[in-house]
Amino acid sequence: MTGGVPDKPTATDATRPPRALRYQHVYDLVVNMIEEQGLREGDQLPSTAELAEIAGVSVISVRRALDELTRSGKIVRHQGVGTFVAPQRLVSEPSRPGALLDTLTSPGGDVELTTELVSMVVGLPSAKHAAALGIDAGQPVWEISRLRRLGSAPKVLEKAVLPLQLVPSLDETRIADGGSLYGFLSERYALTDDFVEQVFEVDQPNSWEREHLQLSAKVNVVRIRGISVTAAGVAFDSFQQTYPAREFLFYVSGNSGPRLMESHDNGPWSVRPLGAPPSAGDD
Question: Are 128 and 135 contacting, i.e. CB atoms less than 8 angstroms apart?
Answer without folding.
Answer: no
